[in-house]
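Researcher: Quick one. two chains, 616 residues in total.
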Amino acid sequence: MINKLVKKIEANKAPIVVGLDPKLDFIPEHIKQKAFAEKGETLAGAAEAIWQFNKGIIDATHDLIPAVKPQIAMYEQFGVEGVIAFKKTVDYCKEKDLVIIGDIKRGDIGSTSEAYAIGHLGKVQVGSNRIAPFDEDFVTVNPYLGSDGIDPFVKVCKEENKGIFVLVKTSNPSSGEFQDRLIDGKPLYEIVGQKVDEWGSECMGDSYSYVGAVVGATYPEIGKVLREIMPKAYILVPGYGAQGGKGSDLVHYFNKDGLGAIVNSSRGIIAAYKQPGYEKFGEEAYADASRQAVLAMKEDIMNAIVNK
Amino acid sequence: MINKLVKKIEANKAPIVVGLDPKLDFIPEHIKQKAFAEKGETLAGAAEAIWQFNKGIIDATHDLIPAVKPQIAMYEQFGVEGVIAFKKTVDYCKEKDLVIIGDIKRGDIGSTSEAYAIGHLGKVQVGSNRIAPFDEDFVTVNPYLGSDGIDPFVKVCKEENKGIFVLVKTSNPSSGEFQDRLIDGKPLYEIVGQKVDEWGSECMGDSYSYVGAVVGATYPEIGKVLREIMPKAYILVPGYGAQGGKGSDLVHYFNKDGLGAIVNSSRGIIAAYKQPGYEKFGEEAYADASRQAVLAMKEDIMNAIVNK
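Model:
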């Protein structure tokens, strides 16, 4: 799957991923009203609204992008109905041949971690059938529990030719509380980065590993260091746009081959119609605004890489 | 909710929680066959089997215990259908007046963390309705992202009178890879423990905080240290039984008031009929075996506390 991701990034000339993190506040009134008219102001109504909203954005952008990253929290927020909308979104993106990065940030141990890995990336045995439950292509994983938490994911990735992105340095202001603390003179994120390199060495694709890393756009100097520590890890970069990261900040997240990083934008794309400069689209044409925002982001990032 | 948990622990004389972590391998053949006959060897069939299995255990043990801890990974493993079984289990335990600790180990930032908090502990606004999506009483939370990840949970806990258990020192063999690393001479788990004490100080129940901690049974000396660092945090203790922890190892997890810790057992209770000493029950009476195992665990732990 890492090979497919790299190929699609090259074909689209777009090292970007659209974060499908729908909030009801982002969704145009006409979509909400239709969904609520059909299913009531209920969890089912909310789930229908986010699914229809997603569908519009996917239809308008899928030919420009290699991948999407649905953030499962935004679906779990609406309970079982929200999880159904998550699964519908995954399936629809698969139909469009997009690579799906499930932003689930799971992390547990042993057989529990294996259950997450199977549920999201693998196949579960039920009687004589093997069934893929959620069937994302990649997921994000939390490293706090150590190798016991990561190994079961790596095992499933090898079996299914899928991948993970391990949280190394997150984009939020308080990420340093633990991640930046010095251990034998090195920040914790470097120690985790070394483990990512180690975990990834046993499951390599053609040029990059099945085990990638999450490194926030908001800490460019740290991105430069981590790029060197994990040369074979694809870096998933959140924090672009709404959280403050710019294309020019991100050049050091990429390798000399122009590859090695994929930058996420969520709000900046899916709620583009609410952003300055996109007012002309209006609510009805929210998906067209998203397409325009994808083109602008692609240009910003590709320019930065070319001018590196 | 922390007050309710403490009262139920005192009333039952049982500082224990039953981990509802069903695997298909644990489920007696007659339950699986009935479920598969009704719904096929499908995700729906598997979900029906785990729900019926859980129901048997809850019916047989609910009068002896204060709380249950469903591990959501074991449900997500069966996709959307599994999540439906998770919700059914939560609702049924609520009917039985059990305190429900959702073992979800979520952790993200800002509005994403808030979405998890709302989805699992709070209420979501849909049009003019406020709806509780999963409605657990407590959830487990991963601290790797720092205060930005915890604060949204604390906010919802205050609003809804609910609680969290933050992962501090987990029970698995590799938990030390990051958690034991020394920072200014102190292991990371102590630094996280100090933050738990700090986060908890702003939302106190009568004698314990809404913010508890997860500390594995397999590291009793560390449990002793963390007990002192977080005097007001309830400690959720995994790793008893199948993972090797014994009642006598756990005395230092409790405070002088005999409170302050709640010990989880999953496999040792729910798959008791497969354990040495419980063979006489057989598959058909699996739930009676679980009841017997609860009584034995209760005795082991209460003896340890009394003889402290």
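Chain A touches chain B through 72 residues (CB under 8 Å).
Researcher: Thanks, that's what I needed.
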